[in-house]
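cache lookup: miss for this entity combination. No prior model stored, computing from scratch. Input as submitted by user K.M.:
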Amino acid sequence: MTKTAILGYGTVGSGVAEVLCGHEESIARKADGPIQLKYICDVREFPDSPYQDRFVKDFSVIENDPEVGIVVETIGGTGVALDFTRRALKAGKSVVTSNKELVATHGYELTHLAAEHGVCYLFEASVGGGIPIIRPLTQCLAANDLLEITGILNGTTNYILTRMARAGAPFADALKEAQANGYAERDPSADVDGHDACRKICILASIAFGRHIYPDQVPTEGIRNITPTDMDYAEQSGRKIKLLGRAVLQPDGTVSAYVCPHLVDMENPLAGVEDVFNGITVKGDAIGDVMFYGKGAGKLPTASAVVADVIDLARNKEHRKAVLWEEGGPDAVSAHPMATRWYVRAQTRPEDLRKTLGGGQVLARRGIEYGETACITADSLTPEELKQRLGALQPLSVLRVLD
Amino acid sequence: MTKTAILGYGTVGSGVAEVLCGHEESIARKADGPIQLKYICDVREFPDSPYQDRFVKDFSVIENDPEVGIVVETIGGTGVALDFTRRALKAGKSVVTSNKELVATHGYELTHLAAEHGVCYLFEASVGGGIPIIRPLTQCLAANDLLEITGILNGTTNYILTRMARAGAPFADALKEAQANGYAERDPSADVDGHDACRKICILASIAFGRHIYPDQVPTEGIRNITPTDMDYAEQSGRKIKLLGRAVLQPDGTVSAYVCPHLVDMENPLAGVEDVFNGITVKGDAIGDVMFYGKGAGKLPTASAVVADVIDLARNKEHRKAVLWEEGGPDAVSAHPMATRWYVRAQTRPEDLRKTLGGGQVLARRGIEYGETACITADSLTPEELKQRLGALQPLSVLRVLD
């Protein structure tokens, strides 16, 4: 018998309770024994909850109960969640979380703290909601040297970009629609400015390449500046605009990681990832490219990923191998941002823009504005090199191209 | 130190040797100790192989060597591969395989034989080449009740269908091209008649739904009868034609499994799976739809999946939980084939075809033949119900539609 406690009875926490208690029999079969939800810790009152008798307000009840072997942290943020996670690990309890902010900023500390106390810190649900990605990275692709991870990691921005592409709507209207449909928060900054995708690429890069990459080391740009005009040029050149998080291993062993919108060729499977879905491609030296696709958020998908970690821990109590990486630092990331081709739109004539950029492909568009040109550079350039070529020219839009 | 032996030094077997010996250091780190390739068993001579000193012709050398803990079977087929697998398991060695035919026909026996002897029979590489699918099904989605698996499981036929769609080529020409490019065998029957996809859906269904589904219980139809005309109708109605293997849990607990070409809506992520790629969607009650995508065949992708299983076994020597299911039988599969909508093309007038089918959507096509009509039925029908509606009409094509 494994006993668990849930910290934080919000959307994900209540979903975890629902999945744990709604699949008791099949979970017991898979976990080699029953898993009992003993406590739910939340400071709020939930008089209508079916789990009334399990609520506690004081975390130390859970901390001091030796029967509790696994703690599920679905509080979010890096305040009380960090404190409770440290205390649970020190008390010899494994912790499972969906809290990407905590893993991205304190994952090195917490995974090592867990190992010191002979327990585990698992976080499958922190990236891609219910999409299996952490376990495939650490186990299924173990025979590969991983080279690159590129993904659509945020469902809110992907929904907004999909609406902009389909309806020709400007960003502000598509955002309002996303908010009306419950896909975006009233303060949408964490999503639309790329911070959520940034945390996720940090987690994936840390696992894949073995050193902690911190969010403040990852240049991050959101989608506020994307216009219907850029959408049109992209579509009419056989591309889509997607917000991508990327982490690419460089020949010197450092990692280039960044988040920004890209033009993606229709033939690339990431171009087919629409609406609130996520898609994550992983390149390994033996396997080539694989992609994992599904809903990246939502109560039950995320809860099912949390519960899969709980089952794994229950079934492998004494001998679950830790997921660990080394501490990061300035030398973990590349000194220079990555070179890619670029899409540049400017108020200038085609021949002038091509000359400025040192060659490239001028894009066609129906209803083109007089004197406006969009072009994709022939060369791969770092942001600095692009800036040098642009010189005095003030472009209307500049976006990376995924090749 | 874990010692292994490879049985069969063909494409996959030599790939496994290459991956094991080319990643020794990183594999040792992930497996908590080195993995040594001690023997390669093949009756042929390989004077140029770098592993010259490890070849043996007699399997009993491996069978009787207590140092060998893991045997990799990449012989293929159900003859000597079955004999050697049984003997290895009885000798207390775990077996890892990429042999889908053997797992699909003898998986129940071999997984249980392994469990009796306290070892494992693993086969991640038998479905989807290097794409992680078996481990996600058994571990990552453990908190879900699985409802359906639908996949493009064969790269050869997907390549042929992609070429037909893009070049407007007839089946015979696209097949020749696939053979010229090394994507199809000289005798292409196992691929183009759907047998390979059938074996794979049997393996996935057995794992997902808990009872062995045998290939002879799965109605299987290949792609020989697909014409450029059908391709045109599909494309002009916003669909693609894909060979799908499906296994769907029915309300009575039985499984409907079948393999045949389907019209797939462009919005479905499976429609974007082109060329030699595979894509497998899994529906769970909590997670909704997830898709796994990648190269479904090839020496190194398949070898990397084999080696991931070897690492898993090496790292969890004493306590790797078995992947097991119950014996099958006639009551494991549904008594009636599944109902879907259908695409019907016939030499008749639109109004007559709609009337015959009891309503439906008539498809438009440029360059339509006089008197020919293609229609998608309004109702979901079993094959028997469709036959009844068609009555005396002899259609030119009949294909299922994926909804």
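stored under new cache key. The CA atoms of residues 277 and 294 of chain A lie 5 Å apart.
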